[in-house]
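hiii, so i know i said id send this last week but things got crazy w the move. better late than never?? heres the sequnce for the chain we talked about at the cafe, plus the structure i predicted for it. fair warning i was half asleep when i ran it
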Amino acid sequence: MFGDLLTSFNGAGLLLAAVAVLLLVMLGFTATPRAFMDRRLRRIAEGAGLTVSHRTRQGEQAVSYPRVTRRTRTAFGYRLMLALPSGMSVDDVTRHIPELADGLHAQEVRVSRGRPGVALVEVYVRDATPEAFDLDALRTLTQGATRDLWLPVGIRDDGSPYRVGLGHLLIVGATGSGKGSALWSVIRAFDTLRADGLAILYGIDPKRAELAGVGGGFERVEYDHTGALALLEQVGRVMDERKLLGLRSFAATAERPWLVLVLDEFNGLLNDPEASRRRRIAELLHLILSQGRSLGVVVVAAAQNAQKESLGQLRTHFQTRIALRVETASDVDMVLGAGSAEAGARAHEITPATESNGYATAGVAYARSDGEPVPVRFRFPFIRDAEIAAWVETAERSNGHV
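okay and structure toks below
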């Protein structure tokens, strides 16, 4: 009998021990990653000099470093929330992105601001760039998901759609970056509004590039500086008429639709050799960009390079700025804003898309907007010439030009 009791006790003890071990393992899975990452970050911070020196109450010299308060998994790796010691800023963390990437064995690290005293660090342990896709894939992803005045134009790293607000939009990308598909992705995003009579497209294309052959798909397109000036003057008159209505905010109607002004080769438009006409074009563009949104006028501008003389005074008027592949880190900052390249928008490191690599990087871009100031990486769909031709035919018919 005593043996049976002993056996029973041992069995119960083993069961309790197993439960205890299981609980410890479960606790380890929830607590250990953050604690382990905190120790790892401390070593990286000490080696990189990402520390703050101070004196304790006892008068001894001490060093503080960022502490990991939260670690969460993401589709591309994990996200760290860092509590910063007094005297350290998010900019200090941003300046040590190369050391963080190497120390964390990450392909890429991005840093942004959380609440006061907190830095958010996105750690990419693998390449999360979406595979090339077409417009149908984007439509499938966004089907049934409606957001007023937000236009889906691409897919983000985490597989969710990237949307731009209905405001002025700037796209800059070097040759072979996918700028044409990017511009047409935005144009196509207006399809529903245009088909419902709530948006009218105007275009200016000084080099007869992407807008050549759009025909009646646009209400009006100009291909030289004289015509461009005339069109900008027309837009200015529409704005003057709408100002007289005294509207507190713009709401599109069939009688008063959104006017979408698509400007391809933006730099060429501002490099008019005739001085007086160039000044007037620049004056009208500034007026349209600074006042147009509240009057129902939206500018979508595309350029091949980030010329300071073209973008310097106008960039801040674009609510969303997008950089495809560009040549230098300074180009990234010129398009997206100061410090964007350092914060993780590595558009200058995107490999050129060529026939030899199957255009594997075409359409990959970084964006920064007023509503989402942290640089976001996403990809535009690839749009074929046949799709553009089909769109023109459909748009001409719906506009009554066929």
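btw Confidence is low (pLDDT under 50) at residues 27-31. thought thatd interest u
miss u guys!!
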